[in-house]
Amino acid sequence: MEAAKATAAVRGWREAAQGSVLLDGFHALKHALRFGADVSAVLTTDRAAVAVLAADLAPDVAARIGESAVEIPATVLKELVPRLHPTGIAALAARPDRAADLAALTREPRRAPVVVLDNPRNLGNIGAVVRLAAGFAAAGVLTTGDADPWHPTAVRAGAGLHFATVVERVTVDQLPYGAPLYALDPEGDDIRDVPFPDDALLAFGSERHGLSEAVRSRATRLVAIPMRPQVSSFNLATSVGMGLFHWQTGRG
Ligand SMILES: C[S@@+](CC[C@H](N)C(=O)[O-])C[C@H]1O[C@@H](n2cnc3c(N)ncnc32)[C@H](O)[C@@H]1O
Fold it and tell me: What average pLDDT does this structure show over 201-215?
């Protein structure tokens, strides 16, 4: 009976994997469930260990994890998820509807900024930024360029918090027009003199080349986070964290 259930679950996974979001690890699954993800398959190497983790770290979703988790041999799960998370659990979820997500960002009034990552290169940075956006309740994270912000590495770095905010890849032309755009750049005006309005777009440049000309030319203002002389720049995700903190602390 258990073996038949495991075989069916692995078959279901193989059929659904393409086109689904991989939730790699307990924390990614926990956050995805909390923020309304449509989770279609949950596989683990150890149901008892997962139950202990869930009771300890996520009692709010423990029952749902317990009901849906199917135990399969570690060798099989590692075939399906080569970089299996140390918590020994993985799940698949449906990617949110792009049109609905983008429409939500243009609905007015928008009460929290949208973070724009201009051609980010590092998937770990993208995940870290999604996690920051979720934590600060930003309206969303839009990326330009060819990196997929829903790549499994980015979702893993974001601890599944992609489901707590809007995350989409767009062209510069698709950025919500009309919203004031504050472009973060070490050469800009001191951020301490520039409050960010709730409906701002906060744009950050790529790790290698900074802001593109296309985004710079749309900027309402270039804004700098103060740095000690001779330091050229902060890390991208760190800059986003400081930018969002600045927005939050400046709210009335
Ligand atoms: C690693 S930096 C890019 C460095 C790149 N070599 C350059 O020429 O700008 C990535 C992004 O973080 C933001 N950033 C980093 N340090 C900043 C600072 N001191 N003030 C404002 N933004 C900063 C900017 O948006 C920047 O484009």
Answer: 97
